[in-house]
Every structure is written in structure tokens, then in C-alpha cells.
Specification:
Oligomer: single chain
Helix content: 25-40%
Strand order of the largest sheet: 12-11-10-13-14-15
Order of helices and strands: HEEEHEHEHEEEEEHEHEHEHEHHEH
Largest sheet: 6 strands, parallel
Shape: elongated
Number of strands: 15
Radius of gyration: 23 Å
Number of helices: 11
Structural class: alpha/beta
Strand content: 15-25%
Length: 321
């Protein structure tokens, strides 16, 4: 779940507490192109006010019209498809003939939305199971399965942070990177054993550790939802983290530095039994090549490359002349 969808749940809960009727929509299937991924949320209030999105706006307009007409004040969850035909896909703003299916559910006391929002506010991950017959919700630990599942009896969704970012170095660059990464729903850890940097760290919502970088990487048990980025320019710190991260299941490992410095880094890491195959996973210089120069611009380029890696999108590299 990203912060956009968390804000939808918070808004729906506020409406409910103010005595309004609310319908929550969850994308459960998509075919072809779709503007928002599976699991995305939209909430519609009884007067037509809306929070979140599941399309370019046309589906939201249809939901608003239905709720104002009184045809969507449901007694139990329901499934609805949009864009079944090419004409309907065009009408609802779904590109390339895309189709999506929503589960619409009336929010009641049995939805336990207050408990869900409270848990998410504490940074927890929660499995939410919706009974399709009654609308009752059960909340539990998510376990290893983090995918949405739906059958005739229930809808299971997993909410909360799924992506972790470990940054080596607590300098100015990391401040921008960490702040932006929080908005993208990363659970951010910053590692810097240097007192002069660690004492000045003040980005709310992040975790700071003073342990050595290689110990931190090992302690985090980095998996396919973890990214590690080295930003200190100090080989004694960056290389320690990289040699462990490159041997892990991290979906992204990056390091700041010029191409010349990256070449020297590769030579050093090879001496620490890092293989050429493992080194090929290293993004360095870190970030997409977009001409970025200032710390916030470089942070944007790094997060753009992280986003591409998350979704398996390959960014074409510029031709070297």
C-alpha cells in the first residue's frame, strides 16, 4: 500500500466518524492497461465527495453519479467491471482497451476501519479479510503472502509498508532522499557510525543506526523488497555495505560516485570475493542519467531509478560517445 491509499482510508474513517455513509472501492483485477495498480483504493461519500482514484476520472464520475442517485448504497459488498467493451473502455478513460474490476463495500462498524488505520499509523503491516456475503472484516498478521486474493467468499488485501530503503551516510543528500522516499511509502533506515553526521540527523519517520554498515545490512536480512544505497563517498563505509548487499536478495543496490570512482570500487570489491556477476547488479553512478546536479535533483533521479526497478522497467542507457 502506498501513502495515497493510506490517505483514502484516513479520509473514509473521518467521514464515517462524522456520521456519513461511505462506500470503499478496491481494484481487484485489471486486464490490458489500467491507470492504477491492483489494490488501489477509492472512497465515495453519500453526497458524492470522493477520495483517491482508480482511473483518469471517468470511473470516479460514474461512482459519484450512482451514489447521488442512491443506486450504490450497498447492503453488502459487490463486484463491478468497467471497460468490458472497447466503447466502454474509451468512455471510462481506460487506455488501450483496458478493463478493471472493483469490489465495492459499504463501510460499517464491522469494517474495523479505525483499527486498520491505527495499525497502519504505527507502521505495521496488516492482512484485511472482507467477507463478501456480510461485509464483516477480520484483521490479522499478514505472514509471507502479500498479494491480493479474491474468491466468491472473501477478499484478502495486505496493507502497510512493503518496501525498505537502507541508506549509508547521514549527509545532506540523504536528507532529501529519505524525505522523498517516505512519501513513496519506503520504510527508511539510515546508517552512519560517524558521530559528526549521526548527531545532526533529524528526518522524522526514519530510523537511524550507528552500527557498522555491513552489520546493518546483515541484521536487516535484506530481501527482494529492500534497496541499499551508499552515499558517504567513504570506501571504508560504502564498500562494507555494498559487499554484503550485493550478495543478498536486494532488488536494488546503488552507490554514489563518478565513473572513475566506480571503476576503482569494482576493483576493491573483487578483492573481497564479490563476483563479477554480483557486481553487475550495482547501480553506479546511482540514479538515472538526467543531468541532476543538486542534492534534491540527484535524490529525484535515484528514486526514479528505484521506481523503475520496483516495477521491472528497464531504463535505456544513454549511448557513450
Amino acid at each position: 500500500m502506498d501513502n495515497v491509499d493510506l490517505s483514502v482510508l484516513r479520509e473514509a474513517l473521518l467521514w464515517r466518524r462524522n456520521g456519513r455513509q461511505v462506500v470503499l472501492g478496491t481494484i481487484v483485477h485489471t486486464w490490458g492497461s489500467a491507470p492504477r495498480p491492483i489494490g488501489s483504493l477509492v472512497a465515495v461519500r453519500d453526497d458524492g465527495r470522493i477520495a483517491g482514484s482508480v482511473s483518469g476520472g471517468c470511473i470516479e464520475d460514474d461512482l459519484i453519479a450512482k451514489i447521488r442517485e442512491g443506486t450504490m448504497m450497498l447492503g453488502h459488498p459487490d463486484r463491478v467491471k468497467y471497460g468490458i467493451s472497447a466503447e466502454e473502455a474509451n468512455r471510462f478513460g481506460l487506455p488501450c482497451g483496458g478493463t478493471l474490476e472493483l469490489v465495492l463495500e459499504p463501510i460499517t462498524d464491522a469494517s474495523h476501519l479505525d483499527q486498520l488505520v491505527e495499525a497502519l499509523g504505527e507502521g505495521k503491516r496488516v492482512a484485511r479479510v472482507l467477507d463478501m456475503a456480510t461485509g464483516a472484516v477480520t484483521l490479522s498478521e499478514p505472514g509471507d503472502a502479500d498479494t491480493l486474493s479474491l474468491d466468491d467468499k472473501s477478499l484478502r488485501t495486505v496493507h502497510g509498508p512493503r518496501w525498505r530503503l537502507l541508506v549509508i551516510g547521514a549527509g545532506q543528500m540523504t536528507e532529501y532522499l529519505a524525505t522523498m522516499a517516505l512519501a513513496l511509502d519506503y520504510d527508511v533506515t539510515v546508517c552512519d557510525p560517524r558521530e559528526e553526521y549521526a548527531l545532526g540527523w533529524s528526518v522524522t519517520g526514519t530510523h537511524l543506526t550507528r552500527e557498522m554498515p555491513d552489520d546493518t545490512v546483515l541484521a536487516m536480512h535484506c530481501d527482494r523488497h529492500t534497496a541499499v544505497i551508499a552515499l558517504t563517498h567513504d570506501p571504508k563505509l560504502d564498500d562494507l555495505a555494498l559487499m554484503e548487499a550485493l550478495k543478498s536478495d536486494c532488488f536494488y543496490v546503488g552507490a554514489i560516485g563518478s565513473r572513475a570512482n566506480q571503476k576503482k570500487r569494482r576493483e576493491r570489491l573483487l578483492e573481497f570475493d564479490v563476483t563479477n556477476e554480483e557486481l553487475d547488479r550495482l547501480h553506479g553512478p546511482v540514479g538515472i542519467k538526467n543531468g541532476a546536479r543538486t542534492p534534491p535533483e540527484i535524490a529525484v533521479s535515484i528514486l526514479a531509478e528505484l521506481t523503475a526497478a520496483r516495477y521491472g522497467f528497464r531504463i535505456p542507457q544513454p549511448v557513450q560517445l
